[in-house]
Design goal:
elongated; alpha+beta; binds flavin mononucleotide; about 30% helix; Rossmann fold; Pnp Oxidase, Chain A; 12 helices
Length: about 400
């Protein structure tokens, strides 16, 4: 099995084995404390058979991952490891985390990382822990570590901060935005059914399942039942098929496909024949030509600004910066007094320009073309100004975004 290698928090080397076709959607498997990636053998085989690619990790201080010399085994280090690994993956995986692995995944996704994965499965990750249970578990784990000849670093028991893990797990739960499944072992002595149901209620899109004849180590106790439950959830909630639009089928899918093209956001402005400013939010902006200097925007035929834009000899395209999301929203809903709430001035070429935008293009109307339910408005750029110090407001898959520098 080829071992892949990732750089974790503080440069610690995290290893995992990769199975399946790299073109298939990815599932990342994260074991619990005192375990190794071997607990996923059944689940990994079932996932690959069902057309998913799998990476099973060894956590820091476990199995073949690095056992850091500085003994950094606090909960936050595991969370940062996972975040770093997710940033190194080419696509957003579904994460399956057992026990500690579940806490780590939930916190990485809930604390500001919703975009990092496409789904989350928590395998018997207890939201509450009775300390006597833990002492007992720690005793068992210590004994296991000795018999397993160093499958994990016993220093973990000294450095791990359980209270921080539980507190952050519970705080993160309501902020998990991806489809989620909690799988409890019906015989689990670590996770009680009532606290598991409580955490499931906290996670907005979560389901709950219980595996009979399995304890806390639900994925390996009944690998067959665990895999079946996992696959059923994935097929229903995070299917592997790629959505397809065909000419004549629903416009929603086409819109979603087009939404894969990330854009900036502009507000297109002009004066109407009465000298009043008009404008609307548009992301259909495209540069067209340098010589002559041309650009275009597509304006819906239903837009109430179209008439003014079509009649005005000049118009402006104002590219918004990251702080101008309120302006974007304002210019995209009808019935608001858009210009009273937004600083603007008359440009040099008889079009209103928004103040402090990332860039302003003042244009003379060059040509108009029919474009189905839109009009393609081509402008000749007479003047362009821009602010090199600001970041753009972005739009992708129907949501505003910001640049992310990795
Ligand atoms: C991010 C974003 C991009 C948009 N892009 C366009 C566009 O390119 N062309 C368009 O006609 N409408 C676009 N719209 C929709 C218009 O802004 C919206 O329908 C607006 O209310 C039209 O105003 P009006 O009818 O006063 O002209 C966009 C909306 C948003 C939020």
């Amino acid at each position: 099995m080829p071992l892949s290698q990732f750089k974790g928090f503080g440069g610690v080397v995290i290893r995992g084995d990769m199975r399946g076709d790299p073109d298939d959607p990815l599932v990342l498997l994260v074991h619990g404390g005192g375990q190794t990636r071997d607990i996923w053998n059944d689940a990994a085989a079932a996932l690959v058979r069902a057309g998913r690619q799998v990476i099973a990790l060894d956590l820091r201080g476990h199995g073949e991952s690095e056992w850091p010399a500085d003994g950094r085994y606090e909960f936050g280090a595991y969370v940062e490891d996972l975040r770093a690994i997710l940033a190194q993956l080419p696509s957003r995986p579904v994460i399956v985390g057992a026990s500690l692995g579940g806490w780590v995944a939930a916190v990485a996704l809930g604390e500001d990382g919703g975009h990092l994965a496409s789904g989350l499965i928590l395998a018997d990750a207890p939201p509450d822990l009775d300390l006597s249970n833990i002492r007992e578990a720690a005793g068992t784990l210590r004994a296991a570590s000795e018999t397993a000849k160093g499958a994990w670093d016993p220093r973990i028991l000294e450095r791990f901060d359980l209270e921080d893990a539980l507190r952050r797990f519970k705080a993160a739960a309501p902020r998990i935005r991806v489809p989620a499944l909690f799988v409890r072992g019906a015989l689990s002595d670590i996770t009680d059914a009532a606290s598991a149901s409580r955490i499931v209620e906290q996670i907005p899109a979560a389901e709950y399942a219980e595996i009979g004849e399995a304890g806390h180590l639900v994925a390996s106790d009944r690998g067959d039942l665990f895999s079946a439950t996992l696959l059923d959830f994935l097929e229903r909630r995070i299917p592997r098929f790629v959505p397809e639009y065909r000419s004549g089928s629903d416009a929603r899918t086409l819109r979603d496909a087009l939404g894969c093209f990330a854009t900036g956001v502009t507000v297109v402005t002009a004066f109407d024949t009465g000298g009043e400013p008009v404008g609307l939010t548009a992301n259909s902006f495209t540069s067209v030509s340098l010589d002559p200097p041309l650009l275009l925007v597509c304006i819906a035929k239903t837009s109430s600004s179209l008439k003014a834009l079509a009649l005005a000899e000049h118009f402006a395209v104002n590219v918004l910066h990251i702080g101008q999301q309120p302006a974007s929203s304002l210019f995209a809903v009808p019935g608001e007094d858009r210009f009273r709430q937004t600083p603007w001035k008359r440009g040099r070429h008889d079009a209103p320009v928004l103040s402090n935008a990332l860039a302003n293009f003042e244009c003379r109307r060059h040509q108009m073309h029919d474009g189905g339910d839109h009009i393609i408005l081509v402008g000749e750029v007479l003047r362009a100004t821009f602010d090199p110090r600001r970041d753009p407001l972005l739009y992708f898959r129907g949501k505003y975004r910001r640049l992310h520098f990795s």
